[in-house]
Amino acid sequence: MTTATIAPPKVTDKKMLIDGKWVDSVSGKTFETINPATGDTICRVAEGDKPDVDLAVKAARKAFESKAWSKMAPAQRGRLLYKLADLMEARLNELAALETLDNGKPIRDSLGGDVPSAIASYRYYAGWADKIHGKTISVAGPFTAYTRHEPVGVCGQIIPWNFPLLMQAWKFAPALACGCTVVLKPAEQTPLTALRVGELALEAGFPEGVINIVPGFGPTAGAAIAGHANIDKVAFTGSTEVGKLILKAAAESNLKRVTLELGGKSPNIIFADSDVDTAAKHSYYAIFYNMGQCCTAGSRLFVEDSIHDKVLETISGMAKKQVIGDPFDPNTTQGPQVSKEQFHTILGFIESGKKEGAACVTGGKKLDRAGYFVEPTVFDRVKDEMRIAQEEIFGPVLSMLSFKDADEVIDRGNRTNYGLAAAVWTKDINKANKLAAGLKAGTVWINCYNVTDTAVPFGGFKMSGLGRELGEYALANYTEVKAVYTAIGK
Description:
Blueprint: E1 16-18, E2 21-23, E3 30-34, E4 41-46, H1 50-65, H2 74-90, H3 92-103, H4 107-128, E5 136-137, E6 143-151, E7 154-158, H5 164-178, E8 181-185, H6 192-204, E9 211-213, H7 218-226, E10 233-237, H8 240-253, E11 257-261, E12 267-270, H9 276-288, E13 300-304, H10 308-320, H11 340-355, E14 359-362, E15 377-380, H12 387-390, E16 397-403, H13 406-413, E17 418-419, E18 421-425, H14 429-438, E19 443-446, E20 461-462, E21 465-466, E22 479-487
Parallel strand pairs: 7-8, 7-10, 8-9, 10-11, 12-13, 12-18, 13-16, 15-16, 18-19
Antiparallel strand pairs: 1-2, 3-4, 5-6, 6-22, 11-21, 14-15, 17-20
């Protein structure tokens, strides 16, 4: 696959969006956002902290209570979301280039996946805006009862760096469709597309204060959002460790509503009765797509004993052919890791795997060039208790494990604190359904991997999070249900 050549964009320093205006931080501080392919500074961005979050929350509260938003016809909110999607589509190449520059993902992925998927999310929830309603319920006695689904209020949203534009859409779109206002903190590693969408939202006609974007760091701006007493709901996507901190802060402040989409250590299971070649090829992309920086990454590959060698040969051969380099080269299939910190974390996991006795079949090293590039790495002879089989690496590192039968692999697949996703490859539908029922995961793929759709809920069991994003299910995150009784016949 190739695509037209797109040059890296030139970017100027960025401010934050509060109450419909682009402003400096109260402190005047800024931080650098880095090009992970080179290690060079792209630009400086206003650094938000608690005083900036306070101003953003005040603006969001004012907008939520005003007739300009809470009393706006739901269909009009939908039209604004459609308009934002149209403006994004008209600037697809620009947004893709900005995402690739800031995140490091190949331009082919930004163009073919991230930006179109984000646009689709806005359009999907635009269609829901005037279809959010309650029920009339039959009750005993001379009464009638009905429910109202009302917007929860001011929503704090904290998004990650692996799919910055898409995760913003997953947060913004349902909240805005429901009539909520938003204070969003993009990841400090990748703030640029979030800020550009803020510009497009103003162009689309969103009222002042409905959308506020405060770049900054987790312990400061993020903590201020999680613990803010005038925020009604917080949504976070990121690590399980940070998710725990957000849940604690939310409980200690005002018991605000919380949804969390956290980590994963997903089992990907290949049976001998599957189409083995297809399963092996898709299992390669299940872990190495987006440089391994996916919460659903199929990082634990369980392979039935009799086909182990064949699958290992296919996947390790594909790893050796990966085109690693400039993410703006249309032929590149793997770019850099997002940051220097993540780069060193991954290398630490690789060394851990070697020390614990796993066999590093291919990869295992950094590239001798500028930027944060790690070779796609395949470990064989991995044991369940090894660190690389238990902890989320969030990088291009695959752990291969062998198994004998379905009951064994269900048990071992569930031996993790996470439960975000899983996959099973088999031509036996009874076996597939047995695995789908037995695996503790929010999403189970059968003979496919990483298939998502805006209409289908997404989220995890156990320590992979709370609540669901996407589909109709996400609307519950941003509404309160009110019951109303009326006496009749009196």
